[in-house]
């Protein structure tokens, strides 16, 4: 393709509504662009009419995107209007916001970089302070997410993630069908989830059909109080509780074993907690040799495999019958650790039974948790919790069509 005949002019970069390029200077290795107003009046942002009454004139100097290695500043005059419609305030500018020290395009680039880099690196790239970078990102992050007024979830997943040491959690709610995070709240109490349903609204809350969560009583109480949803307990949390019981049995048997048995049991934790169907023949043989020496560990392993196999059952009636049989096997085995797990599963069995109807899990939430942890590590932790919540929604939530 041939070269375009359009001639590039530096001043074309600084043509904004209501202003025109006047002059430019080099000042301390920085470029200063001076803009001149095209009208002595201003447009009222309230009634959109021209206002002849100027309350005050303010000389402003703001930072714009760099040109090569030079910082660029824009100098202009803005008006504070006193309109007949009753509005008294600054006029609306298309290239910067009130009281901002940066142009909109400068802030937009900063926000985009903050999605991919830590604040420290963005501040270095944009050549501004760390605090200024954070203020820009926090102010603009909300523009990239959709609030609860614009969603109408039918199936939700609820999970928690630690945001700080000392059992400090965030509650993360996602729309299962959209596959996006729609809300983040502080703590994991009943009141936390109640706040979500309050913001969502009574009508939308009662339209929720299914809620997936772990066996956490505050979440369950809030779901029952605010919705008519069927509660499904995440099978992965149940599987985790069962494998933890096997691990407790392993530790107990290791403590009782003699020196020779301990040598044989060492470095077998991964094997014992793995599913048999996922092990190669050599590893299965290692397990058989171990179980020949320890009957309790063998029984615990069989109970674990039986329980996890049930979740692969496609028919609801058969799955429920197999669980009842599993409860009997646990009782007959008499292993204390499994008796505790069986009691817990029996208490929440209604949510486990719903799994065979709806086939939903919180696996997607675990994926989001990994992403959230990356955001946290990239920033070396967040002291500003509201900012952290915004970053989660910005990264894992729904985005405005104009801000993909």
Report on this model:
With 404 residues, this protein is α/β, with parallel strands linked by helices. Helices cover 47% and strands 21% of the residues. A hairpin with a 2-residue loop joins strand 1 (19-27) and strand 2. Helix 7 (235-256) runs antiparallel to helix 11 and helix 7 (235-256) packs antiparallel against helix 13 (336-347).
Give the rounded overall mean pLDDT.
87
Question: Based on helices, strands and strand pairing, what is the structural class?
Answer: alpha/beta
Rg, alpha carbons = 31 Å
The biggest sheet amounts to: 5 strands, mixed
Helix-strand topology string: EEEEEEEHHHEEEHHEHEHHHHHHHHHH
Overall number of domains: 4
Number of strands: 12
Unreliable stretches covering 5 or more consecutive residues: none
Our measurement of the CA-to-CA distance between the termini, rounded to an integer number of angstroms, reads 31 Å
Q: Percent of residues in beta strands?
A: 15-25%
Please tell me what the overall shape is: elongated
- Give the % helix: 40-55%
Helical run tally:
16
